[in-house]
Structure formats: C-alpha cells, structure tokens
Automatic annotation (TrEMBL):
UniProt keyword terms in alphabetical order: Signal
Keyword flag Repeat: no
Residue ranges occupied by any Alginate export domain in the UniProt entry: 31-490
Protein name (database record): Transcriptional regulator
Length: 495
C-alpha cells in the first residue's frame, strides 16, 4: 500500500515525538499502551432522499486503534493509529463527515473514501510545567480538540494548544491548520480546509458552585489560491472556489450541564455568538461557456446564532428537557465542529441536530424535546424529537446528513448527464422532523492518564445503538422520498 508523503511524515513524527523527551528510558518510567477494537454495523437508507441510484449503506466494519502514551516529569507524548476494514464504506468514527461525499461528478479519486484504509489519528508531545496546576498542558502535533458543546471544536487536527483546567477557571488558547487527513484513501484535503488557519481562545469561570460563565473567540484566515473557471476546462469538486477571513465571538452560561455526572435538579445552557468577516468566491462561466466579466466576487458576511436548553431531573435515573437553536441566514460554523455532546444528560454524546439529518448552524432553527435515562455507569438511553425550519426561506442550509441531488438528463435517452445539489423550494421553510434513539450498555471501566481525556472517545467497553429517522419537510419538494434513516450498532472493546 502506497502512503502519501504526509502519512509517511506523520509516522516518522509519531516516533520522533515519543522519543523527543530526554531519553527513552526516562520517557517510559510511566507508560501506557493499548488497543481499542471497534466493530460497527451500519444501516442507512435514502441519504439522497430517492433522488439518485444508490445512497444506501448496509455493512459492517472493523476499526483497530492501537495507541501508546508515555510521560516523564512535565513531558508527555502520545500517538494513535487506525486500521479499518469493512464490507461497505462504513462510518466507524463519529468524527467522519458524510458531506465528504459530494454530489458533483468528478474524475478525481483523491478524496473518495474507501472500504479499507490506514490512518494516523493523533501524534503529539505535551508539556505541563508552566504552572503547578495538574489541569494545565501545552500540546503540539495532531491532536483532538474538543469543547463541551461540540459546536466550536471537536476534531483531530494539527495544532499548538494550551489548556488550563482548574476548579474555578477553564481556558484554551491555540492555533490549528489541517495539512493532511493522514489516511491512505484521502490523499487531498477538502477545498475548505486547504490553506485555512484557525486561531481560537476561550475562558470560563465558575462564579458560584456549579454555575459557569464564559467567553469564546475564533478566527479563520484563508488566503489559499483560488481555482478560477476556464473555458473548455471541466471544474472539479476539489477545486478551491472561495477564501476569506471570518471571526466569531460568543458568550455562554451553563450549570455544568454537559457534565453527565452532575446531580442538579435543573440544568441549563445558553450561548449567543456573533460572526463577521469577508469572503471571495469564484464566479462560474457564463451560460455560453465564456469567461465571466469578473473572475470572482467579494462579499461581507455577518450573522449570529444562539443555542439554549433546559433539563429537569425527575429522579436519580430519569431526566426530561427541551432545547432551541437558531442561526441566521449568513451565519456558519467554523468547520471544526461535530455538534456532538452530552446535552441529554447521559454519558453518550448525541448529535445536537439529529443522528440522521445532522444539521448545522446555518440558516436553521430547531426545537428539540428529549427524555434520558442513566442507570449508574452501566446503562444509558436518550430519546429525542427534533423539528427543523429554515430561517430564510430563499437561502440554503448546511447539513452533513442529506445528499439530495437534481439530475440533468438527456432528453432522448434519459441518461443522467450531471448531478447538482437539490435546490430547496423557494419560500418553503419546513425542513422536516426527526426521532433519535441512542442506547448504550457499558461493560468495564479503566483508569486512563488525564492527558488522554480528549483523545479516547470512550473510557470503557460498550455496545451502543445510534439511530435516527428523518422525515423531509416541504422545503425539499414533493418528489423526494418520505423518510430516510441512519442507524449504527457499535461494539467497543479495549485491550
């Protein structure tokens, strides 16, 4: 199997980082290593809402994740690999984005996911000697960045990140840029990620027991070279068609609501974020195939978003709650989000905008009602109902879960000549509704080094069902299928 240069460099850097402390013997004074084995069965029907052939996934996959961790004094180092074999293109990783499979025709296979692949998930070196606090660490390398609500950061990316985590104050400062996916099948980055730098900072203060208030900021700088339209030259889905700078500033308050161990009778979270910036976009060729008058256009962007929720504990095991989110038409997230968190009050992280629909905070509002159950640390379950609308009925929305297309066909033969994303119906705001069910059985616990709290997805062995059924609304028109579903059964074991 031929590895691309970034994967080779990552393998070399992984070993270099692990041996970068004074001596190997010193590093291995305290060491940890292990293997996480994950088997995933996936059933998915009508991601394209019946607008094209295929769109279904039925198969199983095996995901092996060996990891090694060492520390000596204030220094630490960590690396995790990954080997996936499957019968179909299975999402064994909740950080995978369905949107990677675009609807445009392309002869470029450099970003087509394959059934089997090798990957490097993380490789970093850390130093925690700047302060005497145990929750402080500076990490350099490819690492898991995550914040509590998953709406700002939850991804593996190359970064320099400083974390300060104490009883009264939590803070993060860092810079990140994606240089490679470090997978043998994905040889190129998404056009959005090419030459895009992220700078971020956040701080939260516990002003009274169990009550937090915080500020968050994020800036993206993208000056990557644009691929302008050329007459007679076919466009490609990997062409970079836009760049620019965007800045997000937000304020949040919560009752430690994302900590599933808290026993508050009432939990809440609330956040509001403003976004401002500018963007250049490549203009398409004229209808007759000639160059446009201007190769690109520039736009000033501004938007805002809010997410609020409340959760009531009925007894030690049962909770019920409601949540509301709204994002203006021009608002968009920064690209590092997963939108997964413990917002239902259980140990399982649930997608905030539907396990099937997987909405994004972009021209969308949603209302969610849920009930959850947690039995000690052995079982948990969440049942969630979502309703989704567009804010502006004449503009598109972001979603990682729906891939509906509009086909251009030959008038004589009926053959499909090309496919583009299905435009939503003008003036129609109803995106649809969804029911989700997430149920987990945990088997055993194990103590992991504190520095790995962000890296290891699950702290114990488990069996989990994640399922969502989405019913499209009027905005998708009358020609699409009535339902789509996405369901996973994960079995995780640790050695």
């Amino acid at each position: 199997m031929k590895l691309n240069p970034f994967v080779k460099a990552g393998i070399g850097l992984s070993f270099a980082l692990l041996w970068s402390c004074p001596t190997l013997a010193a590093l291995t004074e305290a060491k940890n290593f292990g293997l996480e084995v994950k088997a995933t069965a996936q059933s998915e029907d009508d991601r394209d809402l019946g607008t094209q052939k295929g769109g279904d996934v039925n198969g199983i996959g095996l995901d092996l994740r060996p990891w090694i961790y060492g520390e000596s004094g204030a220094w630490s180092a960590y690396a995790m690999g990954q080997a996936v074999v499957s019968s179909d293109i299975i999402e064994t990783d909740t950080l995978q984005q369905s949107a990677d499979d675009t609807t445009e025709q392309s002869s470029n296979d450099d970003r087509k996911a394959k059934k089997n692949y090798l990957a490097l998930r993380e490789f970093w070196v850390g130093y925690s000697g700047f302060t005497p606090y145990p929750g402080e660490i500076l990490k350099f390398g490819r690492q898991r960045l995550r914040n509590d609500d998953g709406q700002w950061r939850d991804t593996n990316i190359e970064a320099l990140n400083w974390t300060f985590d104490t009883t009264l104050l939590k803070a993060n400062v860092g810079a990140a840029e994606r240089f490679s996916e470090y997978r043998t099948d994905l040889k190129e980055l998404s056009p959005v990620d090419k030459d895009r730098q992220h700078f971020y900072a956040d701080a939260a203060y516990q002003w009274t027991p169990g009550q937090w208030i915080g500020l968050r900021g994020h800036h993206t700088h993208d000056d990557g070279k644009l691929d302008y339209a050329e007459p007679g030259v076919a466009s490609d889905q990997l062409d970079k068609r836009e760049n620019g700078d965007l800045t997000w500033l937000g304020i949040e308050a919560n009752s430690d609501a994302y900590n599933w161990r808290n026993t508050n009778t009432v939990n809440y979270w609330a956040s509001i974020t403003g976004m401002r910036g500018d963007r250049d976009k490549v203009n398409a060729l004229n209808a007759d195939g000639t160059r446009p008058t201007s190769a690109k256009r520039s736009d000033d962007l501004s938007g805002w978003a809010t997410d609020i929720g409340v959760r009531l504990r009925l007894d030690p095991q049962w909770q019920v709650g409601a949540a509301y989110s709204r994002a203006s038409a021009e608002y968009e997230q920064n690209g590092l989000q997963s939108n997964r968190s413990n917002w239902t009050g259980t140990q399982s992280r649930v997608h905030r905008f539907g396990e099937a629909f997987r909405g994004e905070m972009n021209n969308m509002q949603s209302m969610s009602l849920f009930g959850s159950w947690q039995l000690r640390e052995d079982y948990d379950a969440s049942l969630v109902y979502h309703k989704f609308w567009r804010v502006d009925g004449n503009k598109p929305v972001g979603s990682n879960g729906i891939d509906a297309v509009q086909n251009n066909t030959d008038d004589v033969t009926g053959a499909i000549l090309s496919s583009t994303s299905l435009p939503l119906e003008d003036g129609k705001k109803d995106l649809g509704q969804e029911m989700d069910l997430v149920v987990t059985k945990y088997f055993k616990k194990g103590l992991l080094p504190a520095a790995l709290s962000q890296s290891i997805d699950e702290p114990s062995a488990l069996v989990r069902l994640r399922a969502g059924v989405f019913k499209p609304g009027d905005a998708y028109g009358s020609q699409v299928d009535s339902y789509m579903h996405r369901a996973f059964v994960d079995v995780v074991w640790k050695f």
